[in-house]
Amino acid sequence: MASSCNRQYFLNPRLSLRLVTLLWTVTWTVSATERAADIYLRGEVGGNVTFHCPVDKTRTVTFFYFQIQDEFVNGYYRTKDIVRSVWENTRVDRDETAVHMYGLNISHSGKYECIIQYVDSPRINEAFIELSVTANYSKPTVTTFCDGENLSCLVTCSSHGGYPKAKMIWNGPMSENTTNHMLTIVNSSEVPNPVTMMFNSSSTANFNCSNGQQTGLSCSVGDVTSDVFSVCAPKVPPVVSSVIVGFACVVPFVLLLGLLLYCKCKKRHRGEATLNGKTVNGGDEEAIGLSAI
């Protein structure tokens, strides 16, 4: 019975025509748009990239649209000019069906769509190119502050202008078992710039100096690492220069010698003055006596 119904259904010309029409419509709808495999592209802030849209170079292109979501970026028609505004930092290469983009920033990240139609077919050809824009973090700067007794030190590593978001990492000869004894993370932050969308990353750690000086330390974020540094250096008493010590010993001796010479010279001058006085008086007395005779 079932086979008889199926046979009658397919032998009915009107039903068969409807079925063929339905199948053709579905097939045409599916094949009217052809999509290529997604392409992934990377760029850096301030740099340039080129989107190479897949194209059959043996065929003539009727039009080429390049857009992100529903926003037109650039493109061309074979026989007329594009009337829509294009991005100022883009340029179309018709020979390569490519789009050059300059002066990248974080906001340019996203999934772009290539839309191509050829002269010999109404079919729309699509391809998606996903762009990821990154930015290198600056080399981390290290600032250290130790307490007066040098029992602990606060060290801050900071970096700016990076993307995507990344944490500051502490590096050194510390093992997982000793890390908690040697340092404690006080604060870590990854703050985005509202204008550039890039991140500033920093971390502050408190180092316990009870185990002595710690060397070979550094911090890193993304692909950049700070200079190697050390903390908890032993407190060295001030060293008195040998020159200062020698000078301190010589000065009193020189002063004493000068005082002795001064006293000796003064005594000599006093004796000469006394002797000269007696001679003069004696001479006067003789002169007076002669004049009296």
TrEMBL record:
<keyword id="KW-1003">Cell membrane</keyword>
<feature type="signal peptide">
    <location>
        <begin position="1"/>
        <end position="32"/>
    </location>
</feature>
<dbReference type="InterPro" id="IPR007110">
    <property type="entry name" value="Ig-like_dom"/>
</dbReference>
<dbReference type="GO" id="GO:0007166">
    <property type="term" value="P:cell surface receptor signaling pathway"/>
</dbReference>
<keyword id="KW-0393">Immunoglobulin domain</keyword>
<dbReference type="InterPro" id="IPR013162">
    <property type="entry name" value="CD80_C2-set"/>
</dbReference>
<dbReference type="Pfam" id="PF08205">
    <property type="entry name" value="C2-set_2"/>
</dbReference>
<keyword id="KW-0472">Membrane</keyword>
<dbReference type="GO" id="GO:0042130">
    <property type="term" value="P:negative regulation of T cell proliferation"/>
</dbReference>
<keyword id="KW-1015">Disulfide bond</keyword>
<keyword id="KW-0675">Receptor</keyword>
<dbReference type="GO" id="GO:0006955">
    <property type="term" value="P:immune response"/>
</dbReference>
<dbReference type="GO" id="GO:0071222">
    <property type="term" value="P:cellular response to lipopolysaccharide"/>
</dbReference>
<feature type="domain" description="Ig-like">
    <location>
        <begin position="122"/>
        <end position="209"/>
    </location>
</feature>
<dbReference type="GO" id="GO:0031295">
    <property type="term" value="P:T cell costimulation"/>
</dbReference>
<dbReference type="InterPro" id="IPR036179">
    <property type="entry name" value="Ig-like_dom_sf"/>
</dbReference>
<keyword id="KW-0812">Transmembrane</keyword>
<keyword id="KW-0325">Glycoprotein</keyword>
<dbReference type="InterPro" id="IPR051713">
    <property type="entry name" value="T-cell_Activation_Regulation"/>
</dbReference>
<protein>
    <submittedName>
        <fullName>CD276 antigen-like protein</fullName>
    </submittedName>
</protein>
<dbReference type="GO" id="GO:0042102">
    <property type="term" value="P:positive regulation of T cell proliferation"/>
</dbReference>
<dbReference type="GO" id="GO:0009897">
    <property type="term" value="C:external side of plasma membrane"/>
</dbReference>
<keyword id="KW-1133">Transmembrane helix</keyword>
<keyword id="KW-0732">Signal</keyword>
<dbReference type="InterPro" id="IPR013783">
    <property type="entry name" value="Ig-like_fold"/>
</dbReference>
<feature type="transmembrane region" description="Helical">
    <location>
        <begin position="239"/>
        <end position="262"/>
    </location>
</feature>
